[in-house]
Amino acid sequence: MRNETGDLGGRLLMALIGGLAGLSLWALIEWLDDVLISPHLYLVVTTAVAGFFSVLLALAGPARIGVSVLAAAILAGLGAALIGWSSLRYDALDPFIEGSYALLAWGVFLFVATPIASAMLEVRGRWPDYAHLFDHSWNIVVRYAAAWIFVSIFWLVLFLSNALLEMVGITLIEDLIDIDAVPFALSGLMLGLALSVVHEMRAYVSPFLILRLLRLLLPLLVVVVAVFIAALPFRGLDGLFRNFSAATTLMAVALGAITLISTALDKNDREAVSAGWMKTATRVLALLLPVVSGLALYAVWLRFGQYGWTPDRVAAATAAGFALAYALVYAVSVVMGAGWMARIRAANVVMAALVVLVSCLWLTPLFNAEKISANSQLARWMRGGVTVGQMPLWEMARDWGQPGRAALAELDALPGEDTAELQVAITKARETDTFFEYDRETAVLDKSDRIEKLHGSISFRPENETLSLATLGTLGDYVFQDWEDVCIGAAPPGCVMVLSQFDPGERGLEGVMLLPRKGGLDTYDAVSLRVIDGNLVLGRYVDAMAGSGRVDLTQDDVRDVLNGNWRAAAPRKKALWIRGKEIFPKN
Description:
Blueprint (H helix, E strand, L loop, with lengths): L7 H28 L3 H21 L5 H23 L5 H7 L2 H21 L7 H37 L5 H6 L3 H20 L7 H8 L1 H19 L9 H21 L10 H32 L3 H25 L4 H23 L6 H15 L9 H6 L2 H12 L7 H12 L3 H22 L1 E4 L7 H4 L4 H11 L7 E6 L8 E8 L7 E9 L2 E7 L13 H8 L3 E4 L5 E4 L2 E3 L4
Helix pairs in contact: 1-2, 1-8, 2-3, 2-5, 3-5, 5-6, 5-14, 6-8, 9-11, 10-12, 11-12, 11-13, 12-13, 13-14, 15-17, 18-19
């Protein structure tokens, strides 16, 4: 029977390390920022300490304490130096922490590099094979997860104990945890102790159960992804990318698929899925993965084409690029036939190294997301066709550090009367503390010019029927933005609005707005509308009278409208007829 005291010395050592980690965190929060003059130096010290103890607690136990301390110091020191270097792009820490993705890159670097270091320590400095790397990665995840669950239970028991003792007038526990440093020290101590015990019990608390449970989800994901892809030809891509969340969803699915494929393959063929249908499901998911990952990258690329680069989009493009790289490697490995499992495992080691490399590069001038974004927005304005309201001026002034402000200074220095509105908006971006305040102050400034540009980009039919600028300005902000995106600068025939008294019994003009469909190549949508008391009221996307689903119009259809080849006629009430297609505003 196992001795319940286990390795008492090892447990005490891990508890001590955890306690020191907690006290160090408390010191960083409470007083170190008052001692260190430079906020950048404070950030370096904080990330160095946090990184050191996070890595040390993960390595100690499986590896000797001496080499664990050395490895943790190297990784933490490198991560802190890189993040300190990256922070020099900013004068203040708040925008750097909130919007630069530097902390995320730092976390990814430590998260991926730690199991690599752990495996290398086991094989004495050599680059680990996949089996070692797989085991160490999942063991660290399970150890930390179990340890934090124990810490949560510890605090629950402690609070219940305090409540029980208070019933008899004893406040010892409450008095103790009221001391600022004690909760940090106790949490760290319990975390270190739990990590030590979990390592001792690694034969019982292992990733085996989690990996087997995750495998059960793989067939379900295969079915969902297959149905999604099968539905694409019928649904089309145009409605898929109407908002940025499509890219996020697709990337999350791709990440889930990559994880499930890796768990199915395990560390070697002997531990991998053995049932024939599970192997088939794994291969099918690997072959479907490039579609999902490719669509995620395409969704980000569409947003870049519409609005230019921002740090958010650069980060999303990087993540989507990695997802597609994984997907292509997996798919090619499967297509090559026998030995596909071994090829994917070997590729996972290479991809892990690339993730570490790119995470480091993100924190250097070689991959400066803020500079990439600022240059993109500057070039976007220089090309023309962009309104002041479509430029992220406040973000450039407040969130993109020195590169953003440098690009803003170039914009502010542009000559010409047509930049006066831009310069006023730049001044407001520099002076306002919140985006809401900036948006409110520039909305009126920008809207009149935007209305004129949008009105000028719409062709009205019949030509004697048109909207006033005031009526067009009653569009809601989100719809107005959508119409700007597809109408201004659109290739001929552009946007067309047909206005007529389709239903004499109804008040006001009815009409149909013909809009180029986003991502739909030469396909157009029809949106019903009505003008009532000078207000433009939109209906729904118009369906075809014959058949079902949204009406699909081509560029030739819209050219016919411009050339007068349409009529308002109705068997029961008037409808708009275009090249034999019958639509009317109220369906």
